[in-house]
Amino acid sequence: MSFALESVGLTHADGSTALADIRLAARQGESIALIGPSGAGKTSLLSVLGTAWADQATGTQQLLGSELRALDARARRALRARIGSVHQAPPLPGRQRVVTSVLAGRLGQWPAWKALASLAYPMDSAGARAALARVELEDKLFARCDQLSGGQLQRVGIARVLYQQPALVLADEPVSALDPALALATVKLLVEDAAQRHATLVASLHAVDLALGCFARIVGIRGGRIAFDLPATQVSQAQLQALYAGEDLPQPTQAPQPSAAVPPMNACR
Ligand SMILES: Nc1ncnc2c1ncn2[C@@H]1O[C@H](COP(=O)(O)OP(=O)(O)OP(=O)(O)O)[C@@H](O)[C@H]1O
């Protein structure tokens, strides 16, 4: 088992409920897409899986073999080093070199002396270059982060998690700043990398066609609750309409299909 959430709820300090009664489990090596309208709770769920709300969330959270609440601070840090996050807008310091940002993926795995030394002088430029090559950014190895476009920054964040090689990858809208072709190639890269390493991948996506085309399992979230949890092949148009009720269904990222409502199931394969 990679993770298991049981009766998980999350209420913020202002009293708003982000998650309620979440029951979700994944085997190690599964790839799951989270879909749902804006404000549904996708980021909150990814944050809970990333241990961000360890003390505020209710219910039980088993992550990579540990009951989160039973872990002391040191054990939580060790657990976090095995979890990799890809952010919609990666929090990379503007003055930092891309190489340093990518190598930061392993800071939690390295001894303190190596992590500190790497901040001053990159300890594994070749490794960072190889990870950047996978997102076609190897020429940006020594660029400063504030010299990159939003889409390039997003791909640096992905290179960082590819370099980290965590057991659990949590990707929050990882391709929102990329053009359709690059978005498809990048989601495919994340899915294939996770499959090859037998890592678990959970990605939130606004692009329903990418979710259905690239992920075997789809979890629909609405109002902080799981609306459905199904193999991609079983998600119906009616379920998608209900999930996004009151909103326009996200438009396909591919060229329009003859019946554009449900995208091709093999977009990624
Ligand atoms: N730090 C916070 N304080 C108070 N409320 C919050 C906080 N973070 C999220 N929320 C609320 O929790 C709910 C779920 O937000 P969340 O960001 O998880 O949704 P989402 O599905 O990721 O949305 P989007 O697709 O727009 O990114 C929303 O109603 C949001 O306003």
From TrEMBL:
Transmembrane segments: none
SUPFAM superfamilies reported for this sequence: P-loop containing nucleoside triphosphate hydrolases
Domain of life per record: Bacteria
GO molecular function, one term: ATP binding
Domain ABC transporter residue range list: 3-248
UniProt keyword annotations, A-Z: ATP-binding, Cell membrane, Membrane, Nucleotide-binding, Translocase, Transport
Any Pfam family: ABC_tran
Protein known as: ATP-binding cassette domain-containing protein
Lineage: Bacteria, Pseudomonadati, Pseudomonadota, Betaproteobacteria, Burkholderiales
